[in-house]
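Usage

Read records sequentially. Each one opens with the input sequence:
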Amino acid sequence: MEETPPPHPAEDGATVGLFWVSADGVYVGAPATAPAPNMVLTTAGPRVTGPHPREWTWSDLAGLEITEVPTRSAPQRWATHAASFVAAALDAWVPSSPTEMTVSVIAPDGTYRTPVYSSAAVAYSPREVALSRRLLSDFTQGTATPAVMTEWWEQTRPTKILRSREREAVLELWLTRA
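and closes with the structure output:
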């Protein structure tokens, strides 16, 4: 995978599952600064921006998969947060780059892969990943559209970071609205 610059999330957005939802749109992972690629989900289909731009319609796709997702149970996420806090308190903490994930677009002309950055502070919950993948499957099957995500953003515009249970509840809401 090519090296990409770190993400530069919009000031105004929220992580929900494997997605970053903001006034700018819906991203898989965190939005990154150019020239790094971004995977943007639109009502028409997914679009890759960056050095190798591509676009597809949802009806053209056989699938859209995200691999190398950082996943940990709640106790593991809490332990990592605690270790980071202690390291910061001891002035031994050095921020690391966000985890890279891979998005694979399965289209009639082959599989296209692009790196994206995780928008999770530490990792996603296994349930969050499963719900996100179900939602992506609904998009490729034509039973849902990312419009449900942008509509949610326009109606709620959360002002705080959502906890994993809150993010899971939003994903479940999106799945029921499909």
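Summary fields computed downstream for this record:
- Confidence is low (pLDDT under 50) at residues 1-10, 76-90.
- Strands lie at 13-16, 19-22, 25-28, 38-41, 46-49, 54-55, 63-67, 100-107, 110-117.
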